[in-house]
Specification:
The chain has 257 residues and is mainly alpha-helical. The protein is 80% helix and 0% strand.
């Protein structure tokens, strides 16, 4: 596995250097979209608008949405590009399983792209004048969000293996993910709180908003719920991906386009 990881990390580094302008463009677009929405809300509400820590929560949700979109597009986009170029079969006949290859590739890409995500966070904070807290405890709820994101990415990847093209589905899913990352489900009560804990990545996102935007201590019982949530969605995603892999091999349409 270490050999596979370093190979994928090398591949990701080469692509990052070769397409550096595209990465910089992604930073500009992401920050411009958020700042445009921020200015529009400020104009509509008038000069008396006071966001308070709600703006901090919105920043956390937007950055998480950007991170999750990258993870989703990484796995499903790789499957579609490999199918179009006719190299998908090569990935499936490697000494490693397809799920290991795509997970390792996604993690290697994420390590390189984390610098871009950090740049987006810093630029947005500078533009809005709101500075988030970054305690060491944020890594635990962030891990739960990553588990759920990779689970969803593998679930969508299973569809990409079978139907090959998912542009319209991904476009609709992007808006649903924005809802999941932005709505403060951690403030829901009663039966709605249970619903919020069942939504993918929602418990971890709520913990990150509490820790980074509201400077609250980490809620350990809620962290346990977040880990269960992320682990379940990750397991479901891997199961669906391996099922789709068996189906495509069974019917011989792995490299179809």
């Amino acid at each position: 596995m270490l050999e596979l990881f370093f190979a994928e990390l090398t591949r990701a580094g080469i692509q990052f250097r070769r397409y550096l302008f595209e990465s910089i463009g992604g930073i500009v677009i992401s920050t411009s979209v958020f700042y445009g929405l921020f200015l529009s809300a400020s104009y509509i509400a008038g000069p008396g608008l006071q966001f308070g820590n709600r703006l901090d929560s919105i920043i956390v949700g937007y950055v998480l949405w950007t991170l999750v979109l990258f993870i989703m597009a990484n796995i499903s986009g790789t499957l579609q590009r490999e199918a179009q170029t006719g190299t998908l079969e090569q990935l499936f006949i490697s000494p490693f399983s397809a799920s290991q290859v795509f997970l390792t590739r996604a993690v290697a890409d994420l390590l390189l792209q984390s610098g871009l995500i950090a740049a987006i966070v810093v630029i947005i904070m500078a533009l809005t004048g709101r500075w988030l807290a970054f305690p060491l405890t944020l890594w635990l709820p962030l891990l739960t969000v990553l588990l759920g994101a990779y689970g969803l990415a593998f679930a969508i990847g299973s569809l990409a293996l079978i139907v090959k093209r998912l542009q319209q589905v991904l476009g609709i899913l992007n808006f649903a993910l924005l809802f999941l990352m932005s709505v403060p489900t951690e403030e829901w009560t009663g039966s709605l709180r249970i619903v919020g804990n069942l939504l993918p990545m929602s418990p971890g996102a709520g913990l990150l908003r509490n820790v980074m935007a509201r400077q609250q201590p980490l809620d350990l019982p809620q962290l346990g719920i977040a880990f269960v949530n992320g682990g379940v969605y990750f397991a479901i995603g891997l199961f669906l991906f391996r099922w789709a892999e068996r189906q495509t091999k069974r019917y011989g349409n792995l490299s179809d386009y």
